[in-house]
Automatic annotation (TrEMBL):
Locations listed in the record: Endomembrane system
Transmembrane segments: 70-89
Record keywords: Membrane, Transmembrane, Transmembrane helix
Limits of the DUF1232 domain: 74-109
Organism: Prosthecochloris ethylica
Protein name (record): DUF1232 domain-containing protein
Membrane topology, from the record: Multi-pass membrane protein
Keyword Oxidoreductase appears in the UniProt entry: no
Predominant localisation class: membrane
Entry-linked InterPro entries: DUF1232
């Protein structure tokens, strides 16, 4: 198993415990927001900055029970990516110039890509003012009209 996999697995374990403690989750979100502001000028991070901000808002809305239309796997991945982003001792140490955030950006890009549909739904919810009750997951299905014989 690679060092990156171990670091990601540790971040996932920590994320699963954080999700169950809203106060810890709020602290992680605040820390991620601060770090994102500090590194936003990094050319590597600029590529994912806007989506990462959306991810943070989605986690915050979930923690605050404002928006719950998120599959469990998505919220775990979102918090895992955030924890990984905050961890200074991951696959590539964050304080190494030019390389430090390369692995963070790679992980964030992969997670953001895999949950893009959920992020888009969250943004749509935000654009409605967050007023619509959207707790039940929607089901999209193809159908075939049945005509009487």
């Amino acid at each position: 198993m690679s060092r990156r996999s171990k670091a990601f697995d540790r971040a996932k374990e920590k994320a699963e415990s954080i999700i169950r403690d809203p106060e810890k989750a709020r602290k992680i979100i605040d820390s991620a927001t601060s770090k994102a502001q500090a590194v936003k000028t990094s050319s590597q991070f600029q590529e994912v900055s806007e989506k990462f901000q959306t991810l943070v808002r989605m986690i915050r809305a979930w923690i605050n029970r404002e928006y719950r239309d998120i599959p469990w796997q998505t919220i775990v991945l979102a918090v895992t990516a955030t924890v990984y982003f905050l961890t200074p001792f991951d696959a590539i140490l964050d304080f190494i110039p030019l390389l430090g955030f390369a692995d963070d950006v790679a992980i964030l890009t992969a997670v953001l890509s895999s949950i893009n549909h959920d992020l888009d739904r969250f943004v749509a919810w935000e654009q409605t003012g967050g007023n619509t009750r959207n707790d039940a997951p929607s089901v999209e299905a193809d159908y075939e009209e049945v005509k009487p014989d």
